[in-house]
Amino acid sequence: MNASVTSAPQLAPAPVALWKKLLDSRFTPPVFITLILLVGNLQFGILESYQKTLLAIGVSIAGEMILARIFLGKWPHPSSAYITGISVGILLRSPAYWTYALCAAISITSKYALRFNGRHIWNPSNFGICAMLFLASDAVAGLSIQWGNNFAALIAIWVLGSLILWRARRFHITAVYVVSFIALSLLRARITGDPWQSEISPITGPMYQLFIFFMITDPKTTVRSRAGQCIVAFAVALVEFFMRLDSSIYAPLYALCWVGPAALFIEMWLNARHKRAAAPPAIANPAAARS
Amino acid sequence: MKRISAARVVLMIVFAGMLATPAIMRRFASGRAPSASAHSDCQSALARYGFCFEEVSKQAGIDFVHEAPVLDPKLKGIMPEVASMGASVSIVDYNRDGWPDIYVTNSGVGSQNHLYRNNHDGTFTDVAAQLGIADVNRPGTGVSMGAVWGDYDNDGYEDLYLIKWGKPELFHNDAGKGFTRVTEDSGLPPWINANTAVWLDYDNDGKLDLFVGGYYPENVNLWRLASTRMMPESFEYARNGGRKYLFHNLGNGRFEEVSVKAGIGSRRWALASAAADLSGTGYPDLFVANDYGVSELYLNDHGHFHEAGAETGVGFAPKSGMNASFGDIFNQGKFSIYVSNISEEGVLIQGNNLWVPQEGNGLHYQNMARDLGVELGGWSFGAQFGDFNNDGNLDLFLENGYISASRTRSYWYDFSKVAGGNSSIISDASHWPAFDGRSLSGYQQKKVWINDGAGKFEDVAQAVGVTDRHDGRAVALADLWNTGALDAVVANQAGPLLIYKDVVAPGTDWIEFDLEGTRSNHSAIGAQVTLFWNGQKQVQAVSGGNGFASEDDRRLHFGLGKNSQIEKAVIRWPSGALQTMADLTPKHLYHVKEPQ
Question: Model-level pTM?
């Protein structure tokens, strides 16, 4: 879950520069997710404790600083690691402290350990949380319960999140996923015979609010083209559809964990093929070419 | 370049180590708890832990099997969930013969409740029908969910309040020879869907009052639903449950409902409650464990309550409270509070709460369940503190298991997808997928955590003989056979009543107190005994209902360990009178009457 990165303004009068800096899109997602966390916790007590979330954030930022310095030779902007840490703090549920630290550490380390062609291929927190759910199911669970009942708060999060994504030009990803999810939910209800409301229900919960606004829209781990992004969003919903038919509780997280890297590999392969096709034909006989 | 490559190798090794950490932690944890899955015989348990339990219900002549309620057909798909409670057990010496008797509820329409009279020879005889408190689940009146006993008219015999989804009932005990139904004249409302009630003298006027905590709203008839929108509006923030009642005893057989006047006005989904003087004011405070939300702690300021859950720390993080029991686990003269919740591997890990009072100004609690090792039970219900091996430290007995049906198919996926949804979805039963024979946290092991006295509890349930996998609900403790050992009676939902007879290794001491109020209520509910021995002290209180759908024996049981030297016992009666007893001898039951 990295913030989308656009160029920051260069020179401007001080107050304007400050505002522009605050509106720097690298800060927008961290501010938004922090607001969700604070409002949720102050109003509903959504966190078991602040300490666990702070631990995840701390480990995440510290890990990012160390690893970026070693492997990239620079000090990174902390917003990406901050979002990873806070996402772990919200999405992971465990009575133990070590699980938060470990999940944050796995998430950040995966950015540097699991790379292909210079890109990390998994959304860090998605990978970390899936790894913990798979490897430490006796100690952790995902966020699968509701935050309050306030429809107004839910709508406010959706509107604000949509505006931020619109500004970051990534709203189409969320829109395609949501429409696909709903359509496939209705299809699933037809297949299973369960009430359609129960199939729609998950998307009204908090895990999806984080998933659709932060996780599937991560610029670093999504494909580049707009059409490709839409296809990937649909593919995530489709894989989730089948996993839900198999009663997978964390289907969206696992679906993204499979589809995201696969999409990136396909994109890299296609790009390489295009490059090869666009390159001038190899010269078999240099002498002839010179003549 | 070489440096980066070497660093990358190190990184991959570290990364692999991180991924392996959960397995290492698991191995480490299982190495520390070898007894959790190890069955053993009583002799080795006696040698190792100082006690064992023998399940003796059949030898005792008890073959009771609880019958679950069957509600409105509109709930058919999720009947296992909505009809998942009703098994309860309470201990009472109804005939004052000095031997504890057992009352258990049944929950099928037309089913019979049972009162097992103690025959003093290891067996029991059901006398409920003969005494008039068996046929209490008649069509149209709802069904039993629990029972609490208290001598509301101070005539010396314990009376019965029957907790129901339906018409609440009050039975007067006629000198142990029969019961008279006095509901109509008592001032009780016509219908309450409750799972918890507790007798307490909240204003210390010498007459027992009654708190009743509603679960489903009182305008819902679960057998004739007007609407399927009767489920909680949220899994953790629901406030659309039943109302709370505080019935003030007027002293003439009548009660006046005073909850709002006394400061209790909640519509959370109460499942368990218990009362004791937690704040040291001399008045009983009230703790309510709520399903689908935070717990509530009503501090009693001379007869007026104020809810202090958030300010004391117990009412902040919402969970699924299903138990409320008090125990002085550190032998400090202070009560900790145990609240059970839900933990299911990989799905939902709320963890149970052990609220331990902190030093400093004001009353503040910290959840130390994880630190002490009593956090993870399962889908937990009733729990009780008691010293099972008489070593002087309070142990903990916990019931687990929600719905045991198919052994291979689970409802957890469907449960989680609805439970996380918006209120408009979760609150309507018609939106929930059908169970279709699936289990939900079924066939779970129970926990018997023994307290090492140094801040750690160890689960020895399997080793000491608590090996059943029924859907445990209520557990009540009593020295059933006056042997100086604390037996456990377990009520299972749609399952058998189990009696775990406690066999304690020789060499440890104990002492018991049977209190009788004079200026205070006759049942002595609310009285506290602080025992000083071997340089330590432990406080216990007489309870009018605690745990989940249960009530322990009135008599207070203290384990003393070996070579005990008792200094004194200080009794603080609800009237405020302090009584100090010296020259106490271990291995004795003391009958103590409040000084006039």
Answer: 0.91
